[in-house]
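Hi team,

As requested, here is the filled-out complex form for the heme C run. I kept the field names the same as last time so the parser does not choke. Let me know if anything looks off before we queue the next batch.

— J.
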Amino acid sequence: MKINSLFIFLLSAGALLICACDPLTVHKVTSTIFDGVPSMPPADQYCRDYHIQATQDELAAALKKKGIKQESTHPPYAEKRCNDCHDKNTDSGFVVPAEALCAHCHKGFPTGDFLHGPAAVGACRKCHSPHSADNPNLLTKPPEELCVACHAEPRTTVSLHSTSQAKGMVCTNCHDPHGGSNRFFLR
Ligand code: HEC
Ligand code: HEC
Ligand code: HEC
Ligand code: HEC
Ligand code: HEC
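And here is what came back:
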């Protein structure tokens, strides 16, 4: 009896550990346990595992097709708290140097062992507008155009990336744009 419940405890502890990871890591861990060889999941399965996160973007795409914009406005701009950011008396024209402006309020951001280059150096405005935008989340470009502006280089994982693109997924369905605790900031 004791041994039995210990076994069940170990099993569920193991399952918890595996579940805490992204679908790719889960697949690599389980394929290592059962075959001794870590491998990539088939592209189709990978997209299915992530599909739940795609619904948000499908909705956005449907709205866009109908010509309905998903605009967004930055709360401090909407509330006319201009001086929370602008200051005529400083060299930068802002309350703090320009590259520190976003972190002035969005403190401790981003976090994680793996940080995305532009977010890590405070280049938030490569992707976000400070006042308002025609896209959700103050994005300067629609989600499907945002990443390819910089990442034109060919992917090493070609099959996975072309399959997901053909299914209408966008990069941020799988990658966090800021960083995270998984390699390549996988969600
Ligand atoms: C969250 C910080 C923030 C707030 C709040 C904010 N701004 Fe700005 N503003 C910026 C940044 C950053 C730029 C620089 C944009 C650029 O160079 O592309 C800017 C640029 C500007 C410019 C230069 C022209 C332009 O649009 O690029 C004007 C004018 C301006 N802001 C006015 C305002 C006014 C008026 C308010 C209040 C209603 C306001 N801002 C609130 C951050 C802010
Ligand atoms: C004066 C304080 C302040 C500064 C400076 C500031 N923000 Fe914000 N920001 C806020 C607040 C308040 C919110 C709404 C609450 C939240 O999401 O944290 C917000 C929300 C956001 C959102 C979410 C908007 C949405 O539609 O979901 C983004 C993106 C954002 N900020 C980006 C930036 C960027 C980029 C900068 C630098 C140019 C910046 N912020 C500087 C106060 C600030
Ligand atoms: C490479 C593009 C990119 C850069 C650089 C970037 N963001 Fe974002 N950000 C996004 C996208 C895309 C979203 C939409 C939500 C998502 O996909 O996770 C977002 C969402 C947000 C949000 C609202 C939702 C959330 O995750 O809290 C805030 C706040 C935000 N960003 C702040 C920042 C700040 C501050 C910086 C700079 C330190 C920054 N971002 C740099 C792409 C970027
Ligand atoms: C302003 C340019 C820019 C934009 C926009 C941008 N990136 Fe990046 N990205 C970089 C830089 C710079 C690096 C670090 C250099 C490198 O590893 O290639 C990087 C690295 C990465 C990496 C890690 C690559 C590796 O081999 O470690 C991933 C994954 C990534 N970006 C995904 C995205 C996604 C997803 C988006 C859209 C939300 C995006 N990037 C938008 C500039 C950008
Ligand atoms: C279906 C999920 C998914 C989508 C959508 C996706 N990726 Fe990835 N991406 C991954 C996975 C998984 C890896 C890691 C593969 C590995 O471990 O070898 C990866 C790796 C990467 C890398 C680093 C390795 C390489 O191939 O260069 C970059 C950069 C990258 N992705 C960028 C992007 C960009 C840009 C987009 C949008 C055009 C995108 N990804 C869309 C899942 C995805």
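Two things worth flagging: Residues 116-118, 126-127, 146-147, 149-151, 171-172, 175, 177, 184-185 surround heme C (ligand 4) (CB under 6 Å). The CA atoms of residues 101 and 145 lie 25 Å apart.

Thanks,
J.
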